[in-house]
Design goal:
elongated, three-stranded antiparallel β-sheet, alpha+beta, 14% strand
């Protein structure tokens, strides 16, 4: 492979945390066979089917990055990150460094139904409001408020309210969001906590915090006390 094409490949990877897909490489005129030779020469490392990490890259959250890119392998590396698949649920919580939830399978929200052929990727079908998506560490993820609400609603993932409460507590103590901010999607979602269906968002958030072992608060962004 000539130096010009390799430089183009590296430039694409640099914009994606060191990752490149087979489809993106093809867009630079680099064949699968050429990628195979680069892997044999240890210039790139295969992470999963069709996804490579450039040697020397120091990408964090590598597994999540690779799964996200695998969900949209032919994406334009210059396109807006929030215009495609979005990491959500426990995957988003991990990016936010909140809670201790298992991230297997990795949840990715997409607007239209399709199936994943990779057992460690689970697609969630939903049209997200643009205000519920942000970019963190170069990855499109759901906002703290959307993440907590999704985890509380998530019967498929089976997250215990105490574990969701730990996510909320970490988001508050890490100043990722404020108490009113986290509460804004939680109104009417308190039944799993034994609350009435009419419970407001603040009551539901306090219920989550209590379930996780923290005292009630209306100023959760300023710190939390253990119950």
């Amino acid at each position: 492979m000539n130096a010009r094409r390799f430089a183009a490949l590296a430039a694409v990877a640099e914009r994606q945390g060191g990752l490149i897909s087979t489809a993106q490489a093809a867009g630079q005129g680099i064949s699968r066979a050429a990628l195979g030779r680069l892997a044999e020469a240890e210039a790139i490392v295969a992470l999963r089917r069709g996804i490579y990490l450039m040697r020397g890259g120091t990408s964090d959250l590598t597994d999540l990055r690779a799964a996200w890119l695998a969900s949209n392998p032919d994406r334009d590396p210059d396109a807006e990150l929030i215009s495609g698949p979005v990491l959500s649920h426990a995957a988003a919580a991990q990016v936010w460094e909140a809670g201790d939830l298992s991230v297997w399978p990795m949840d990715i929200t997409i607007p239209e139904r399709r199936w994943s052929r990779q057992p460690d990727i689970r697609f969630r079908v939903r049209s997200l409001d643009p205000g519920d998506v942000t970019v963190m560490n170069g990855l499109p993820i759901t906002t703290p408020a959307r993440t907590v609400a999704d985890l509380l609603d998530d019967r498929m993932g089976g997250h215990d309210p105490a574990h969701v409460g730990k996510v909320a507590a970490d988001l508050l103590t890490g100043r990722r969001d404020t108490f009113p901010g986290l509460a804004r999607h939680l109104a009417g979602r308190g039944r799993r906590l034994g609350l009435r269906s009419t419970a407001g968002g603040s009551a539901v958030l306090n219920g989550l915090l209590v379930a996780a072992g923290y005292g009630e608060s209306s100023q959760g962004d300023e710190g939390l006390d253990a119950a």
